[in-house]
Amino acid sequence: MSDLDTVFNESWPEDHRSGVVAVVGRPNVGKSTLINRILGQKIAIVTPKPQTTRRQQLGIYTEEHGQILFTDTPGLHKPHHKLGQYMVTMAENALQDADLILWVLDVSVEPQEGDKHIAATVARLQGDTPVLLALNKADLADRKTLQAHAEAYQTLIPNVGAMLLSALTGDGVDALVKDILSRLPLGPRYYPADQVSEVNMRFIAAEVIREKIILNTEEEIPYSVAVEVDEFKERSADMTYISATIYVERDTQKGIIIGKGGDMIKRIGSEARAELAGMLGTQVYLDLHVKVLKNWRSDDDLMRRLGYRLPKKEN
Ligand SMILES: Nc1nc2c(ncn2[C@@H]2O[C@H](COP(=O)(O)OP(=O)(O)OP(=O)(O)O)[C@@H](O)[C@H]2O)c(=O)[nH]1
Ligand SMILES: [Mg+2]
After folding, report:
1. Which is the closest atom of ligand 1 to the Cα of 75?
2. Ligand nearest to the CA of 118
3. d(C-alpha 273, C-alpha 102), whole Å
4. How far, in Å, from the CA of 73 to the mean position of ligand 2?
5. Which residues contact 302 (CB under 8 A, 6 or more apart)?
6. How far does the centroid of ligand 2 lie from the alpha carbon of residue 245, in Å?
7. How many CA atoms lie less than 13 Å away from 174 in the CB half-sphere?
8. Closest CA to 233 of 188, 201, 266
9. What is the DSSP letter of 152?
């Protein structure tokens, strides 16, 4: 935390706590949903398909007595290509840089192989950092099942706190935030109270387009797509012009994204446009292009070109 400046034109009480919380877990357990819910704003895209989040992403929660810097991370999984390796490395880096590790689990199902793998990863990398379990999706099972699963999850990693919650309904989320704050060290406010993330609208626009593609396509397509915003301009007070390129790995995938008579690209475009217009409070003109970058997910240079670049570690 020492490399962060504090906010000088705001004051906070003496008992103010702050720190970085790495939100980790298997793909699809609800990490991004939870962070969006805590912030009361969508900063990360959410879909029913695993491996939606691909990068580390900061979410800033501020109240009078504390500030929590959440890092949303890609789900920890066994990677099958370079993009997957990049995603897992991102999550592992976040885990090592945190003041608290928030391990999100799906308590509606029994512990899976993937959870055992994560227990080992956390044990290997946590150092002195405390761990808290967020037993999410509690809305999906009855009391008895929840209790049995909660006990099973707690045997994966002994002697840590655990909270039952539903990121979807919001049940238990306030209590979780309180609990997290109480586990953070006394510390200053690092970001202005009204700032909820570090990402810019250009990045969010690319992510929203990617979300609509994931929601509208099947099989390998969601995983083979990258989106880059080429132009983002406020044409006038009530019109934003956004031009973006959708990259796929093969010609057949390009055909699927465009669809019969351009059906699919139209649907993706209109869903993305509607959401971005709501976020920006202006009308949006969205210009989408589709290009093939052969096997980009297995190619370091192409991945870097698309912005999947590992940050240099200082130590
Ligand atoms: N019923 C229920 N569904 C939830 C809850 N939290 C998240 N979900 C759903 O679970 C799915 C995955 O949510 P995400 O927030 O994208 O999960 P994630 O852990 O960020 O996934 P990756 O980014 O792929 O690692 C979505 O369909 C969410 O709506 C919950 O508390 N209850
Ligand atoms: Mg996510």
Report:
1. 25
2. 1
3. 34
4. 7
5. 293, 295, 296
6. 22
7. 1
8. 201
9. H
Report whether pLDDT(310) > 90.
no
Position 3 confidence tier, pLDDT thresholds 50, 70, 90:
low
Please state the rounded mean pLDDT for residues 21-47.
97
pLDDT tens track for 192-243: 999 999 988 999 999 999 999 999 999 999 999 999 999 999 999 999 999 9
As annotated, the residues of the chain forming the CATH 3.40.50.300 domain(s) are: 17-183
Q: Report CA-CA distances (Å) from 137 to 66, 186, 285.
A: 26, 31, 37
Q: Cα 188 vs. chain centroid, distance in angstroms?
A: 25
Select the CATH number that applies to the domain covering 201-305 from these four: 3.40.630.10, 3.30.300.20, 3.40.190.10, 3.90.370.10. 3.30.300.20
Nearest-angstrom CA–CA distance, 153 and 136: 12
| 53 CA → ligand 1 middle, Å | 11
Q: Give the nearest ligand 1 atom to 74 CA.
A: 25
- Predicted TM-score (pTM) of this structure: 0.94
Q: Which residue has the tokens 């297995």?
A: 298
Q: Which two tokens stand for residue 218?
A: 């099947």
Give the closest residue (by CA) to ligand 1 atom 27.
48
CATH architecture of 17-183: 3-Layer(aba) Sandwich (3.40)
Nearest ligand, measured from the Cα of 214 = 1
Asked if 87 and 117 count as a contact pair (C-beta separation under 8 A), the reply is: no
Separation between Cα atoms, residue 105 and residue 9, nearest integer Å: 39
Cα(7) to centroid of ligand 1, in Å?
A: 33
Contact (Cβ atoms closer than 8 angstroms) between residue 135 and residue 105: yes
SS3 163: strand
Cβ count near 104 (within 10 Å) = 26
Nearest to 198 by CA among 55, 46, 74, 66: 55
